[in-house]
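TL;DR need structure tokens for one chain.
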Amino acid sequence: MKFLILALCFAAASALTADQISTVQSSFAGVKGDAVGILYAVFKADPSIQAKFTQFAGKDLDSIKGSADFSAHANKIVGFFSKIIGDLPNIDGDVTTFVASHTPRGVTHDQLNNFRAGFVSYMKAHTDFAGAEAAWGATLDAFFGMVFAKM
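>> reply
TL;DR here they are.
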């Protein structure tokens, strides 16, 4: 059954249209330089995600936002997300890497859904998201569907 779910999710990623991929890549290109803002929005949306990072756990989000550690980690996360977006629709290897690094940390499906919600909130506030919402929805559904099937 898990194989069937994974196959369907892989098919969903492969089924992204060239226009959807272009729209996602273009809209993300406009914000990927604001890694700190993106990670801040995600942590703000769900503080339990921040708590998963030992260097940030228990600290005031506004006070760490300007730190070098926060910036470095934000760039690492957004850099990996940029890789995934650049690899569309062929993201199976990226998903495997993501799952291998997040499963041992006890990251939950709820936290990943909340990460998604925080990211989407950021995108809505910083891009013309209305024109890209359907493409982002399909892309995020494919990515998180594949992740959840492997976790």
